[in-house]
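Q: Please design a sequence for this.
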């Protein structure tokens, strides 16, 4: 066997060792924000003052830590639609189903690892208030 073939096989076997898994940290401040739609001002629940909320980026096998600080007067949680919660079901997000909602003035850290997933997923808030902030925001996995 040629030496270059041996080197190629060695590199292929070691490739997973060279792939770097990152810990990606985000902070979500859940706050009210006044918005003007059709000449009417309305206060809505936002994440970091944005609507839709911030886009998250991660790669397969990354661990994602999202600290959510609830600064509104409603209970909230963040639902990570489509994220496989392998052994982290408490980080899925639907309030009263997989977790207690985050109460006003409290925070919660969602902690999960992205395993076997790529593509575009979405997240949105669950809240006791009907609000456009329930609209989905993006979560890109590559
Ligand atoms: Cu949901």
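A: Design:
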């Amino acid at each position: 066997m040629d030496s270059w073939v041996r080197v190629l096989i060695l590199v292929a076997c070691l490739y997973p060792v060279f792939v770097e898994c990152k810990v990606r940290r985000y902070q979500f401040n859940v706050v009210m924000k006044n918005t003007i739609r059709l000449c009417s001002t309305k206060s809505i629940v936002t994440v970091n003052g944005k609507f839709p909320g911030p886009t998250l980026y991660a790669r397969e096998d990354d661990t994602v830590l999202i600290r959510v600080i609830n600064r509104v007067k409603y209970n909230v949680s963040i639902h990570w639609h489509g994220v496989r919660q392998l052994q982290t079901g408490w980080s899925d997000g639907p309030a009263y189903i997989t977790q207690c909602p985050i109460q006003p003035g409290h925070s919660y850290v969602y902690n999960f690892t992205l395993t076997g997933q790529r593509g575009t997923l979405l997240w949105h808030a669950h809240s006791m208030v009907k609000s456009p902030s329930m609209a989905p925001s993006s979560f890109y996995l590559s």
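Q: Thanks. Anything notable?
A: The pocket of copper (II) ion is lined by residues 79, 81, 94, 124, 126 (CB under 6 Å). The CA atoms of residues 94 and 102 lie 11 Å apart.
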